[in-house]
Structures are given as C-alpha cells and as structure tokens.
Amino acid sequence: MDLYEHQARELFEEYGILVPRAEVADTAKEARACAERLGGRVVVKAQVKTGGRGKAGGVKLAADPAAAELTARQMLGMDIKGHTVRTVMLAEPISTESEFYVSYALDRSAGRFLAIASAEGGMDIEEVAATRPEAVVRVPVDPAVGVTRAKAAEIAAAARLPEEAAATLAGLWQVLSREDALLVEVNPLVRTTSGDILALDGKVTLDDNARFRQARWRAQETAYEDPLEAAAAVKGLHYVKLDGQVGIIGNGAGLVMSTLDVVAGCGARPANFLDIGGGASAQVMADGLAVVLADPSVTSVLVNVFGGITACDAVADGIIAALEAVRLTKPLVVRLDGNSAARGRALLDARAHPLVEQATTMDGAARRAAELAHAAPAA
Q1: Contact, 143 vs 182, CB < 8 A?
Q2: CATH number of domain containing 50
C-alpha cells in the first residue's frame, strides 16, 4: 500500500523528522483557507500516488490565498499518469541551500534493505542515476541490526551528505521498521538557508502482509483510492491503474508483466495491470473484464491466458458471461494457450461477437491490440 505524500509527511513528523508546515484540501475554497492559515504564499501539490508531478504541472507556487484557490481549482480533477487528483496539499515555501536524495528499499534477492542516497537530489535524480551512477551510493543494511546513529553517519558520509543528515537517516529507518514499510523515500531532502535538514517530499510503501498490525492505515487506505482500483479490490482482483489505452488481463503476475512489456514494445501503453490469478473462475474473469471496460481511457483490451490450474475453457466462459452482462464497445483480443485452449477458442468462435478477435501468440495478440488501440477514434 502506497501512502499519499501528506500521509508520509505526517508520519515523518511523528518520528521527529523536520517537515514544512502543511494542510490538505479537497476543494478550492478549502485551499484558500489553508493558504491563509499558512501565511499566504504556499506551494500547492497534487496528491496522487505516482511520480513526475512537478513535470506534469502538479506542483506550483501560489503567491497568495487567491492564487492558491485558483491553482487548486485547476489541479483538482487533473489526470496525472492515469491518477485523478482529488486532494491537494498546501505547504509553506522553504528557502533551500542544497537538495539531496535518500531512501531505504527492500532488496529481496539479498534478504536485506539498501540505503540509497545522493548529494544531488531533486526532479532529475533518475537522470543522475542513469548518467552518473557513481553519484548515487548504495549501502546494505542488515534488518536485524538496523540503522544506528553510527550506521546513519556512515551512509551520510558515503553519499557526501551533511553530517546533520545522519539524524534524519536514523529517523527514516524508524519509520520503515516500526510502520512495516518496504520503501521510505525523500526527494528532496534539503538543507535550508538557516541550516536545518527538512524532508520536502516523501514516499512510503507499506507491506500489505503487515496490515493486521497497522489498523490506522486500513481505515484510511480507501479514502482517496482510484474508483476502479476500489471496485476491483471489492471483487478481490489484483488491479493497478496505469496511464495507457490497452487494457490488460492475464493469469499470473509474471505473465501480466511480460504482456505489459510486449504491448509497450508494440508502440502502445498499457492502461492497467490485472492478474486474475492461477485458479480464477469464470466469475472472476467476468468481474475483471467489467472493471477494465469501465476505464474510459481504454480503447482496446487484451486477454492473455496460459491455461494451467485455470483452464482456458473456463476463461472463455467468463468472457462470454461478461459479454452478456456488459455492453462491449471496445475491441477485445484474446490469446488462449495451454490447458483446454482448443475448447476455449471454440467457445469464443461459437459466440462470434463482432468485437472479439483471437490470436495464437502473445506477440501477435499484443500487436493486434496495439493496432486496434491506435485505430480507435479520439475520445
């Protein structure tokens, strides 16, 4: 579960990490009142669970409460990489001297965490990591030991961060370990002109397997959730909204991820990740198709199933059931292979829906779905 920035900020504050004063609003009028309480001049930040907000126009400086109201009105309802802005955070502007990047992330292959840090934080940290990897340090952290003050000082020194940043690094580890997080990231961590170390932004991903220990997040996690993701969760589906136009359904996370890559390689952008699971029933297939078709950005749908525990004829039954329940207005490409694939294909042929096509290979199915997505009229 990803937290919104304002939730991460509140969490940091609880653990003694310095953050700017800020308030959250879900209407333009509330944003104006927040700006007045914060002193007038504020930074308005769209609250969405994705990166790249600044480049997408989701972070703007407002000179006064009236400007804050106007900016919030423009941001609320915006689409940023497939995420709708439903709230904004207004924060006091900070005069900074330098920017840094710090994070703790789970290294599953090594069974430990990595501290990742750079003295060159900010919006272009990805470019720094790609072009000058030596500017980003990675320090292994033994979860049984954690980040002591000495370890924090080691990380700060390796990344050439100010000595004062060590206390913040120790605090961020406490956030990760006590809140059952898989990722804690601050970009940028800044030194202000007065010498303070502040977290200007924050990203926290909690471990879903630890929800039973984190009751307060269970109560908040659906407050601003994407409605399609919420609808999928109710049906027990593993669905993630993306920013493309090809709806993707598959059985098994690995197959779905491969399908996303193949679709992208065909020049189209996936609209979602939807894994119906290894033992999905016809009802699950029908539910999944209904969720994907409800996304207005979807212009074609690709169902890619390899029959194992899930027999392909059951998947075909699910598709047919969905076609009876949902009016199909977007082309659907189906690739069935494996257990009972021949029977599944025969069932779909017999249904003979004019918007349903079949393909025998994943590459062919992805190519056709991309062609249909590009051929669709503009919404």
Answers
A1: no
A2: 3.30.1490.20
Cβ–Cβ under 8 Å, residues 129 and 80: no
What's the whole-model pTM score? 0.65
> Cα separation of 364 and 309, whole Å?
24
Is 13 part of a structural domain of the chain? no
Q: What pLDDT, on a 0 to 100 scale, did the predictor assign at position 224?
A: 44
Tokens of 83: 């995420």
Residues 201 and 231 in one domain: no
DSSP string, 76-134: TT-EETTEE---EEEE----EEEEEEEEEEEEGGGTEEEEEEES--STTHHHHHHH-GG
Strand partners, 300: 246
Q: What is d(CA 183, CA 376) in angstroms, rounded to the nearest whole number?
A: 39
The interaxial angle of helices 282-293 and 312-325, nearest 10 deg, is: 50
Q: Give catalytic residues, as residue numbers.
A: 101, 185
pLDDT of the residue at 279: 59
Which 8-state DSSP code applies to residue 377? P
